[in-house]
Design brief:
Length: 136
């Protein structure tokens, strides 16, 4: 497997990019990083801000309210509650808006490439080890 970074052009819903000539013809996996396009998380964040959920703390409050409401109704919602727990944990680990993320886009792309390579090579960890040291 070979991972490269190239620039391409998006036009009418199609991507056009030139790859080195030594590449074999055939299907490839493409990861698109469009700097001027908001991602789904940014879109959801904007919707949340428009509805008054403009901080991590307010979103965590909403998650807790939804969980309590679901538990009070006693419906079969185990999977959704687990989903909310996961999001609650993820949000609590994110930096607040005052904190700056110091990684550059190049560092993030390099980390992503390395993670893909590690996964393909079987360099993974059991899920139990990934949760060690993370408090709920």
């Amino acid at each position: 497997m070979r991972i490269i970074q190239i620039k391409g052009i998006v036009k009418d819903g199609e991507v056009k990019a030139k790859v080195p000539q030594e590449f074999s013809e055939g299907e490839v996996n493409i990861v698109i990083v469009a700097e001027n396009e908001p991602d789904e998380l940014e879109k959801m964040g904007q919707i949340a801000k428009n509805k008054g959920y403009n901080s991590k703390e307010k979103i965590l409050e909403l998650i807790k309210e939804v969980k309590l409401e679901m538990l009070e109704k006693k419906t079969n919602t185990t999977y959704f509650l687990i989903f909310l727990d996961i999001w609650e944990n993820i949000l609590s680990l994110l930096p607040s808006e005052e904190e700056e993320i110091e990684d550059s886009k190049e560092e993030i792309l390099a980390d992503l490439k390395q993670s893909i390579l590690d996964g393909k090579r079987g360099k993974t960890f059991p899920i139990e080890e990934l949760w060690e040291g993370i408090e709920s």
